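Collaborator request, handled under Task 6.
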Amino acid sequence: REPPVDAGPQAEALPSTPPVRAEEEIVLLERAETALTKDPAAALALTQTLEEAYPRVALVQEREAIAIEALAKLGRLEEAQARLRRFLSAHPESPHRMRLERLAPP
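Structure tokens returned to the collaborator:
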């Protein structure tokens, strides 16, 4: 029997992330995107639900793009611009950049 391997202090410092239920996340994202055209307030609420349920996800750019667009459609331009600035700071090369900058010019 081999002795246990010591992972060292770095292993203990890493936060444990629960597995993301990707299917549920995708379904909520699709619902939010669909809601954008008729009910941007519902779309924004769904992005908030996503952010709370899945804070660390692969589709964070898509979630944020929907939230920014919803804010712009609701006439909450200052909030949309502030969120866009944070988004671009985190994702400067995002493929969503040009479309979002048209919706909420910085």
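The cover message to the collaborator said: "The CA atoms of residues 69 and 81 lie 10 Å apart. The helical segments are 8-13, 22-38, 40-53, 60-73, 77-90, 97-103. Please let us know whether this matches your experimental observations."
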